[in-house]
Amino acid sequence: MITLALILLPLYFLVFELYLRLAKRWNITDVPNHRSSHSKVTVRGGGIIFVVGAITAFVLGYIGIWPLLGLIISALAGFVDDIQPLPRRLRLMAHFIGLAILLWGGGLLTLPWWILMVIFIAFTGWVNAFNFMDGINGITAFYALVLLGTFYWMSELEAFREFILIMGLSVLVFTFYNARKKAVAFAGDVGSISMAFVIGFLLLELMFFTGDLYYILFVAVYGIDAVITILIRLWQKENIFRPHRRHLYQYMANELQIPHLKVAGIYAISQFLINFSVIFWFHGLELTLLKTMIILLFLALLYVAVRFLVRQKILSNK
């Protein structure tokens, strides 16, 4: 795998450089507005390198055709949306079709209807949550590296280790261009959606292999932030589908002016600590669904407390 990495890394850098030139020529860029956390025109859609990574893994025989097709359909809708706004219903339809192909290829569409409904709602919600969280430099890159590293460690996913490693290489290349004070490129919808699909796919594989639902804690940081932010916006009678700057990381980066990479690091380290605890501590506690929900509730309360303190700090600075 070291030899493969030495071949793929420079190849991915070449692909990324080519995309940068094409994106600038075709004006696939992100122009800052009043909701943005950046101040200069930046190439959008750099996360297409994740799709290239998945295609590489398929060509080398490390992933099947069905997960790849599901990812490509979901990512394609994201890429179109990066170029010009795509109706919300079409984006959601692409996510559902992509997931349906993934489940059909894995022979899971025969599951009871209520289980399928839960999977479709949870998976689609996760993809959109991951997309919502892609708002500052480094956050998608660092968070994805933590999750891919976690999945690589799990012996239950040994059959996917080469795939995970290849995806990790694509994320490292993206990190080089994105995890900067002034990013060269953003992941765009194509990147956040494709990476969310990969993570969701690996999480489903892990849960079905072990039968343990507590692995949902592996994505707790993004999940809690997204869900609580949505609940707050609903409480305040806002349109949750409109862009906003209400996530905790946005308050920290925009209002408190904490450097993007520091905020991204806080999120990534927080998820790393949770995953470390799940693997080396919680794993031996035989976590039931009830215990998992209690842990999630504790983490949610901790998040609310931090959010409250940040909001108080913002108000005191005005």
Helix content: over 70%
Instruction: Give the spatial strand order of the biggest sheet.
Output: 1-2
**DSSP summary: helix tally:** 12
Please compute the radius of gyration using only Cα atoms. Answer: 19 Å
Mean pLDDT: 92
Structural class: mainly alpha
- Report strand %: under 5%
User: What is the overall silhouette?
Assistant: globular
What gap, in angstroms, lies between the N and C termini? 53 Å
Total strands: the figure is: 2
Unreliable stretches: none
> Helix and strand succession?
HEEHHHHHHHHHHH
* Largest β sheet strand count, sense and barrel closure: 2 strands, antiparallel
Tally of separate domains: 1
Main location: membrane
Pfam families: Glycos_transf_4
InterPro entries: Glycosyl_transferase_4
GO molecular function: transferase activity
Could you please describe the fold and organization of this structure?
This protein is mainly alpha-helical and 318 residues long. It has one domain (43-317). It is 70% helix and 1% strand. It contains twelve helices and two strands. The protein is globular and about 55 Å long. The N and C termini lie far apart (53 Å).
